[in-house]
Amino acid sequence: MSATRGSQPATRMNAADRRELVLAAASRAFARGGYAGTSTDAVAREAGVSQPYVVRMFGTKAELFREVFARALARIVETFDAELDKMVIDPDSDEFWAQLGAAYGGLISDQDLLLVMMHGFSAGGTPEIGAQARSTMSQIYTQIRDRTGCTPEKAREFIAQGMLVNIMLAMRADEHLDEDPALGELTACVLGGTLDAALAESAADQE
Questions:
Q1: What is the 3-state secondary structure (H, E, C) of 92-117?
Q2: Worst-scoring range by mean pLDDT, 15-24, 151-160, 171-180?
Q3: How far is CA 112 from CA 86, 105, 118, 177, in A?
Q4: How far apart are CA 41 and CA 115, in angstroms?
Q5: Is the pTM of this model over 0.90?
Q6: Orientation angle between helical segments 51-58 and 40-47, nearest 10 degrees
């Protein structure tokens, strides 16, 4: 929702819906500008509300970003839980890990979520954001290790692969495969089925 629509849509909503409107707008704004480069005024313009309204609702910019970041990270945990609930767990199977990775690929087809996550990790020098990032990384590692019964090394490998996928998609390497043969080869190697899942999820969202 752009700022040109004004603040009227928000005033007709209940408190929970208004909060969701601002958080969705904040996700888009922070995805574009990052934590340091996005002001509460920019979020307010994106949401079509006033800047004092955003401050009254969330307090500081750090608190607003932390909530946006938390929502993005929670979706990762929820996605893995949902996928693991319906899978036959086999930590020795490449197909098992490929399926779990594909579920993650579908999730990060949401570019705003991907970029918020990346901005959040890079803002780790801000104490409260850094603590949040570290806590969730520990949660995801524990989730993967304990729910699959895999070794610490395998959990580390899976998470490391996911972070490399994040980087390749954040730099939009998949959109520039024909510009550099080495980049194209690396992108195909890194993304593989993850890219197929992301494209399929994106196509489904457009239908």
A1: CCHHHHHHHHHHHHHHCCCHHHHHHH
A2: 171-180
A3: 27, 14, 10, 22
A4: 20
A5: no
A6: 110
Nearest CA to 101 out of 116, 84, 118 is that of 84
Q: What is the pLDDT of residue 20?
A: 93
Q: Which two structure tokens, joined as six digits, stand for 82?
A: 């949902």
Give yes or no for a contact between 160 and 96, defined as CB atoms under 8 angstroms apart.
no
Q: For residue 186, what are its two tokens?
A: 């690396």
- Gyration radius (Cα) of the chain, Å: 19
Using CB atoms within 10 A of its CB, is residue 27 exposed (0-12), middle (13-18) or buried (19+)? buried
Strands (E) in the chain, as ranges, are: none
User: For 162-187, what is each residue's pLDDT tens digit?
Assistant: 999 999 888 888 888 888 889 888 88
Sign of CA pseudo-dihedral 47, 130, 153, 141: negative
Length of the chain: 207
| 105, two tokens | 């690929």
User: What is the dihedral sign for C-alpha 32, 33, 39, 40?
Assistant: positive
